[in-house]
């Protein structure tokens, strides 16, 4: 197994084909410097008196979710404008996480948080937090 480049960990937003029945085309959210993904799961405990004192969990049960955090330089791209529009409207859209080895994960996400910052002599930066809504699956 070889190490993978962090710069190849990309966040992409879907462009809907407007009712054509075609899957969305994905565009990279430009200017990202860091991207992080967390897979979370709640457990369902099914421990009973015959468990011998050990906790037992129910496989496949509970609530699973994926959280994505990213930060970068604001470049005023169309993808960044789409993320901002979804943040302001509170709407859910298709996103893709792409990795250097070719693996991709796709799902629908809500923009939970979008922050902008800028120094007097520096670039405008942003950070965002996405929360999954529904299944996140390999593409």
The share of residues in extended strands comes to over 45%
Distance between the termini: 21 Å
CATH classification class: Few Secondary Structures
Broad structural category: mainly beta
Question: What's the tally of helices?
Answer: 1
Radius of gyration: 18 Å
CATH topology: Factor Xa Inhibitor
Q: Look at the structure and give the mean pLDDT.
A: 90
Low-confidence stretches: none
The number of domains is 1
SSE string: EEEEHEEEE
Number of strands: 8
Q: Characterize the overall form.
A: elongated
> The biggest beta sheet, please?
8 strands, antiparallel
Task: Provide a concise account of the structure shown.
The chain is mainly β. Helix content is 9%, strand content 45%. Strand 6 and strand 7 (124-132) form a beta hairpin.
Protein model, in words:
This protein has one domain (6-138): Factor Xa Inhibitor (Irregular), CATH 4.10.410. Strands 1, 2, 3, 4, 5, 6, 7 and 8 form an 8-stranded antiparallel beta sheet that branches. It is 9% helix and 45% strand. A hairpin with a 5-residue loop joins strand 5 (92-98) and strand 6. The chain has one helix at 78-89; strands spanning 10-15, 25-28, 32-41, 64-73, 92-98, 104-118, 124-132, 137-138.
């Amino acid at each position: 197994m070889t190490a993978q480049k962090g710069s190849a960990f990309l966040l992409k937003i879907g462009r809907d084909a407007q009712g054509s029945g075609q899957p969305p085309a994905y565009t990279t959210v430009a200017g990202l410097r860091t991207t992080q993904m967390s897979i979370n799961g709640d457990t369902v405990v099914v421990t009973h008196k015959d468990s011998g004192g050990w906790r037992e969990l129910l496989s496949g049960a509970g609530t699973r979710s994926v959280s994505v955090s990213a930060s970068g330089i604001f470049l005023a791209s169309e993808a960044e404008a789409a993320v901002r529009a979804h943040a302001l409207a509170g709407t859910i859209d298709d996103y893709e996480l792409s990795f250097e080895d070719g693996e991709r994960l796709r799902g629908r996400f809500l923009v939970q948080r979008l922050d902008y910052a800028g120094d007097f002599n520096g670039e405008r930066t942003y950070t965002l937090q996405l929360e999954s809504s529904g299944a996140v699956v390999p593409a």
